[in-house]
Design brief:
- This protein is mainly beta.
- 7% of the residues lie in helices and 55% in strands.
- The strands form 12 sheets. The chain has a 22-stranded antiparallel β-barrel. A 6-stranded antiparallel beta sheet has the order 1-8-9-10-6-5, with no helix packed on it.
- β11 and β12 form a beta hairpin.
- The chain is elongated.
- The chain starts with a helix and ends with a strand.
Length: 996
């Protein structure tokens, strides 16, 4: 409450509210679109106070209204059509009067078409010509009346709709000098006085039933009781308030389902107060299409998917008969998904990383795997690179001395710790990342320069999507304790800042303090992540986000990779110096995103994003360099580095949908400006060797001096174009390209020498998807990437060409069990060219003749086998090796950290009913084959099979769980490319969370 009291005056001063109490208007036509775009451009150029256009409500009819522009053209072109130039509502002793102002009122001849509680009058040969344009809607004009709307039903007919709260209202018609008058009397006031109180009905179950057009949301009451509903819209959200009702689910008072169908991002059903249920259906790009039906079970809401809505829009707009609930045939009975409480799904049906537009995964000619926060919670992931276990073709890469950041090997190639965060580049080498703010992590496999420019790894890119503000209040607190004195707590708060929900917030907080199974190793982390979204117009949102994280840890790189004797050491063995090895980094990340929708049906969107990421700190101490020839001691060195990295990105994109004949297009055009720099200052010294079997610590460094003081980076300008073409409903083509201009530099800050290079590169992509059935997608694609060579010089001091890569991929995506389970099977072949190799004439220089290849097969399976039984599984075969090199002994060497075979399984089952409802068990297996620790291939890292397990119980608004990682205490290791890092033994984590 104190937060709202402090921030409300601030936001009220920023927002110019255009709403009128009790009355709202739907804006349409070209002028409205121009105003929306002009508003967006004004915000872009000056970041001045946003203008708030008020809350607009959509008409209840499922028929799509014609645009105001069309109605105005009709008025101008025909003298036989009667104009309604105004709509007024006056209160009376019995109810209300609705006055349709017209110069020719006697020519308005209503035709009654009542449906249920709705009085409907269609008026032929009439058009709505209001001065402000659009249709007319007013909610709750009088007790017993839900809403009144006057809309353009078709090109020559008006429709007047009066929805009664309990039953059909009484309506009489009169002519007057003002126009046509509808005198409306609610049945409640006509038959009996209003009761001061009403019994509260209980909704005991929420069900989702798939239908041919989308899904049904069923709110079940004990006796099939009819409930009064008050619908409205806010942005892309269709909201229904259900009065005199409360949600009484066995597991509590909250239901949530994410991405239930295409075009809908989330459905929530909550108790907004002690007397009201609030249901929100949030659309991805536009307001979802929702219809209401009564049944013996309770209330049924029909929600159309994006696909069916699009098909409906292509049909002529003609009046239709009243819609009845879809009844499945006995031979086509839909699977009923009964959900109590919050629905947690492993399967995500769409992704923005592969195309930068929201597209169903089945329509993308690439292998994309999405790990939602539900998997992060069920597995109790505390470091993001643990998610590599759940994605085929991906292995974790150990980080900078144990920093909690993101590093991966993808399809045989290391990512160089380059990732994306909400679509912006994130250099994770020194950038700590916490899991508390993560909504999902998307893995796009294969070269990604088509949308993201220079990428160090042709294997793929990882995009972390953070949580966004919600319009409904949601508060959660988590606490975790575990082995090795592991303590962690996190808080997630979100909801509206203003009563009209024109400003939303989210705040994620996390604190972690832990020791380690490694001797003398510990870490402490603090994370703060506020984010605010402001509505700057009916179709325009501005989001401001900030993330702060400080990570203090023991700098520990594990074991050298030059001798197998390290596998004989205890995994706890520390080869540094306890009092010298330390690291601390602080990350500050600011993001601004503006999104404005415009055009017919809001099919077009302008997006502008600006991101500044700065990370600074220092790390180092005593580092183990190599095992000596005696096999008993390790040669060590002292090194400390002061580092700072900076990323600045400015993105501008326009995306939209249009048709050319029968062919549909979904196009994206973008311009990106970015700047990146990394500065490091190394201090090195000598220190005594250490006996690895009988270590005696306490050595001090000698002859410490600055060895390097450099800064490198570059600036980038890029233009990109992409078109997803639907040639036929089952044949889709994705084509596009990006042109990058990159200016790079490598500067010695001590000597003042500076090396600069300029590169330009076009990166194309072409893919095709064929869908022989609704559950099968067969695809093929060709993609490319490039990466400028900032470092290294030839004997002639000439700059090198960028590294380039090319991939060919084919695959099949298959849905099973009525789309509850999905599988992706892919074959890929990647060739990386222009790899730098040592100059055979002078080893101080390099030449550009290297080539590396990687090919393989991947399988991913994810979804729900039965209600409550969720699964995610993978298998990978990868052949990644050096195909060309000046050193013939390196040819056919396998790339570091990549096994031939790997596989994983994670599955949970939660009881759905009975006395133990909410109790669940989890089980996991991870197999990783033998890998090379580096190039040349001198030491192999052994294979391993790890077993994980969990038990949890979820009831009402709380959840408790215990996770066991490495159940059988398997001894295994991971790779950093230059070091071998022991992995954690048997580990227990216990977690308690509360939602309120």
């Amino acid at each position: 409450m104190s937060i709202n009291m402090q921030l409300e005056p601030l936001f009220k001063s920023l927002l110019i509210t255009g709403s009128v109490q009790g009355e709202t208007r739907m804006k349409g036509g070209l002028m409205s679109e121009i105003r929306s775009v002009a508003l967006a451009l004004a915000v872009i150029s000056s970041l001045v106070q946003p203008a708030h256009a008020g809350t607009h409500t959509a008409e209840l009819s499922s028929q799509k209204s014609h645009s105001t522009r069309a109605a105005q053209l009709l008025v101008q072109s025909s003298d036989n059509v009667n104009k309604v130039t105004g709509v007024k509502i006056n209160s009376t002793d019995k109810g209300i009067e609705i006055i349709l102002e017209s110069a020719n009122a006697e020519a308005l001849k209503p035709v009654n078409n009542n449906q249920g509680n709705s009085y409907i009058a269609d008026i032929p040969n009439a058009v709505l010509a209001l001065p402000e344009g659009g249709n007319f809607t007013q909610n709750n004009p009088a007790p017993g009346i839900v809403s009144v709307s006057v809309t353009q039903a078709n090109s020559s007919s008006l429709r007047v709709t009066v929805i009664g709260e309990g039953s059909l209202p009484n309506t009489e018609l009169f002519d007057s000098d003002q126009g046509l008058i509808f005198a409306v009397t609610p049945i409640a006031s006509a038959t009996k006085p209003q009761q001061p109180t009403q019994a509260v009905a209980e909704v005991t179950e929420v069900k989702l039933n798939p239908t041919n057009n989308g899904l049904e949301i069923i709110l079940t009451t004990p006796d099939g009781e009819k409930l009064p509903v008050l619908p409205k819209t806010e942005g892309n959200t269709y909201i229904i308030e259900i009065n005199s009702a409360q949600l009484r689910l066995p597991s509590g008072g909250t239901f949530r389902q994410e991405k239930p169908i295409a075009g809908v991002s989330e459905i929530t059903v909550t108790n907004s107060d002690a007397n009201t249920i609030r249901m929100a259906v949030i659309g991805v790009d536009s307001i979802p299409k929702v219809e209401l039906f009564d049944s013996d079970q309770g209330l049924i809401f029909g929600v159309a998917s994006a696909a069916s809505s699009t098909q409906a829009q292509t049909q002529p707009q003609t009046p239709t008969e009243p819609t009845q609930p879809e009844q499945p045939s006995p031979s086509d009975e839909p699977i009923e998904l009964t959900v109590t409480g919050e629905k947690d799904g492993y399967r995500v049906q769409d992704s923005s990383t592969a195309t930068k537009i929201d597209v169903p995964l089945r329509d993308i000619p690439a292998s994309v795997q999405v790990i939602p926060k539900e998997i992060i919670q069920d597995r109790q992931v505390v470091k993001l690179n643990e998610l590599a276990d759940n994605v085929s073709g991906v292995r974790r890469q150990e980080t900078y001395g144990g920093l909690s950041s993101q590093g991966y090997f993808i399809r045989g190639f290391e990512t160089g710790f380059e990732t994306l965060r909400n679509g912006f580049k994130d250099f994770g080498f020194i950038s700590p990342r916490d899991v508390s703010s993560i909504e999902r992590v998307e893995f796009l496999k294969g070269p990604a320069s088509i949308l993201y420019g220079s990428i160090s790894s042709p294997g793929g890119v990882v995009n972390t999507i953070t949580k966004q503000p919600l319009s409904d209040p949601f508060y959660q607190i988590n606490g975790t304790i575990g082995s090795d004195d592991f303590y962690r707590t996190s808080v997630d708060l979100t909801g509206p800042l203003l009563e009209n929900r024109s400003a939303l917030y989210r705040l994620n907080l996390a604190y972690e303090n832990a020791d380690s199974f490694r001797d003398f190793v510990n870490n402490e982390s603090t994370y703060v992540g506020p984010i605010i979204t402001v509505k700057a117009g009916e179709n325009t949102d501005i989001t401001f986000g900030y993330e702060y994280q400080k990570y203090d840890y023991t700098f520990d790189r594990g074991f050298p990779n030059n001798n197998r004797v390290v596998f004989d050491l205890p995994i706890s063995r520390f080869l540094g110096e306890p009092n010298l090895n330390r690291g601390e980094f602080t990350s500050n990340n600011f993001t601004y995103v503006l999104e404005s929708k415009f055009g017919y049906n809001n099919d077009w969107k302008f997006r502008q994003g600006f991101n500044v990421l700065n990370v600074s700190g220092s790390a180092g101490g005593v580092q183990a360099n190599s095992i000596n020839d005696d096999g008993l001691t390790v040669a060590r060195g002292y090194r400390v580095s002061n580092d700072e990295s900076s990323n600045i990105s400015f993105q501008n994109e326009v995306s939209g949908k249009f048709n050319t004949g029968s062919i549909r297009h979904n196009i994206l055009v973008g311009l990106e400006l970015s700047n990146y720099s990394f500065q490091y200052e190394f201090f090195r010294g000598d220190i005594a060797d250490l006996n690895i079997f009988n270590p005696i610590y306490g050595a001090q460094p000698e002859s410490v001096s600055r060895s390097d003081f450099q800064k490198y980076g570059g600036s980038n300008i890029a233009l990109y174009l992409q078109n997803l073409v639907e040639i036929t409903p089952n044949l889709k083509l994705l084509a596009g390209g990006r042109f990058d201009w990159v200016d790079s530099f490598d500067r010695d800050l001590e000597t003042g020498t500076n090396t600069e290079t300029s590169d330009s590169k076009f990166s194309p992509r072409v893919g095709i998807v064929y869908q022989p059935t609704d559950s099968t997608s067969i695809y093929g694609s060709w993609t490319n990437s490039f990466n400028p060579q900032i470092f290294g010089r030839s004997r002639n001091e000439e700059a090198f060409k960028p590294e380039t890569a090319e991939q060919f991929e084919v695959g099949i995506k298959q849905e099973f069990l009525d789309n509850r389970l999905s599988a992706t099977l892919a074959y890929f072949d990647i060739t990386k060219n222009n790899v730098l190799t040592t100059d055979p004439i002078d080893s101080d220089y390099q030449i550009q003749t290297g080539e590396q290849k990687s090919s393989g097969v991947e399988l991913d399976v994810v979804g729900e086998i039965l209600p409550g039984w969720k699964i995610i599984g993978t298998y990978t075969y990868t052949d990644a090796f050096v195909s060309e090199d000046n050193d013939p002994t390196l040819v056919n060497n396998r790339l570091a950290g990549v096994p031939y075979n790997s596989a994983s399984l994670w599955t949970t089952y939660q009881l759905q009913k009975g006395n133990l409802q909410g109790l669940g068990l989890g089980f996991g297996l991870v197999y990783v084959g033998q890998r090379e620790s580096g190039i040349p291939n001198n030491v192999k890292i052994p294979s391993y099979l790890r077993t994980d397990a969990s038990v949890f119980y979820k009831r009402d608004n709380w959840r408790v769980g215990v996770n066991i990682k490495n159940l059988f205490d398997t001894k295994y290791y991971e790779s950093q490319g230059f070091y071998i890092v022991p992995a954690a033994p048997f580990t227990v984590l216990g977690t308690v969370s509360f939602d309120f």
